[in-house]
């Protein structure tokens, strides 16, 4: 099976490649450069699934018949902010904003919010699309709290201020293996890997 990752985000490519490699499946994984690069996609859908499907469909048009496009749309939804930043997580501080700028804006929004009201969750929706039009979506979520200051040097995005439920360390303080076991992307990937395993066994 050939999977083409519909993202230009190097951090996401590394995480997805690592999880797929650890699953030891008979899968070849490619980044978009293998088919000329990821086309420009306007992420204007109001759901994570909608954006993920849009990106995967766009890349699927460039793939060989035996390829599958895999797109990830993820974000952080904060209860106190009625689900924001949500689908706007990557551009919360404006188009082209850096991870640090998005994170700082969120910290400012929550500046005076007490710890017991800082709940939220990361969501990950993985869309898998074939050139023939087959489409599947796999979902994962990880609940936790938004800390009052960044900690840790690992991860990316909002990882330094997200402390998963039952932990006292942020995502940015966890090892890649620890994060994969409990993260939203890890949960969605396990669902995807189960599907791929069944698909390959039926081939």
Automatic annotation (TrEMBL):
EC number from the UniProt entry: 3.6.1.66
Reported function: Pyrophosphatase that catalyzes the hydrolysis of nucleoside triphosphates to their monophosphate derivatives, with a high preference for the non-canonical purine nucleotides XTP (xanthosine triphosphate), dITP (deoxyinosine triphosphate) and ITP. Seems to function as a house-cleaning enzyme that removes non-canonical purine nucleotides from the nucleotide pool, thus preventing their incorporation into DNA/RNA and avoiding chromosomal lesions.
Organism: Pelagicoccus albus
GO molecular function: dITP diphosphatase activity; ITP diphosphatase activity; metal ion binding; nucleotide binding; ribonucleoside triphosphate phosphatase activity; XTP diphosphatase activity
Binding locations of Mg(2+): 73
Annotated cofactor note: Binds 1 Mg(2+) ion per subunit.
Catalytic activity: dITP + H2O = dIMP + diphosphate + H(+); ITP + H2O = IMP + diphosphate + H(+); XTP + H2O = XMP + diphosphate + H(+)
Lineage: superkingdom: Bacteria
InterPro entries in alphabetical order: dITP/XTP_pyrophosphatase (IPR020922), ITPase-like_fam (IPR029001), RdgB/HAM1 (IPR002637)
Active site: 73
Subunit structure: Homodimer.
Signal peptide residue numbers: none
Keywords of the record: Hydrolase, Magnesium, Metal-binding, Nucleotide metabolism, Nucleotide-binding
Pfam family, one: Ham1p_like
Cofactor: Mg(2+)
Similarity remark: Belongs to the HAM1 NTPase family.
GO biological process: nucleotide metabolic process; purine nucleoside triphosphate catabolic process
Protein name: dITP/XTP pyrophosphatase
Binding-site positions, substrate: 7-12, 74, 156-159, 179, 184-185
């Amino acid at each position: 099976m050939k999977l083409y990752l519909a993202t230009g985000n190097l951090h996401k490519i590394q995480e997805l490649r690592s999880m797929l490699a650890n699953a030891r499946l008979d899968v070849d994984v490619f980044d978009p450069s293998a088919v000329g690069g990821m086309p420009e996609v306007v992420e204007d859908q109001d759901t994570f699934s909608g954006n993920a499907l849009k990106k995967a469909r766009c890349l699927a048009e460039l793939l060989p018949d035996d390829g599958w496009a895999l797109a990830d749309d993820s974000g952080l939804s904060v209860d106190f902010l009625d689900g924001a930043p949500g689908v706007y997580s990557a551009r919360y501080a404006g188009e082209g904003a850096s991870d640090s700028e998005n994170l700082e804006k969120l910290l400012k929004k929550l500046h005076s919010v007490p710890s017991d009201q800082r709940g939220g969750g990361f969501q990950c929706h993985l869309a898998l699309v074939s050139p023939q039009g087959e489409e599947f979506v796999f979902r994962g979520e990880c609940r936790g709290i938004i800390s009052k200051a960044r900690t840790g040097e690992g991860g990316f995005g909002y990882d330094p201020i997200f402390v998963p439920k039952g932990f006292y360390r942020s995502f940015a303080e966890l090892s890649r293996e620890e994060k994969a076991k409990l993260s939203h992307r890890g949960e969605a990937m396990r669902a995807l890997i189960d599907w791929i395993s069944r698909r390959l066994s039926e081939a």
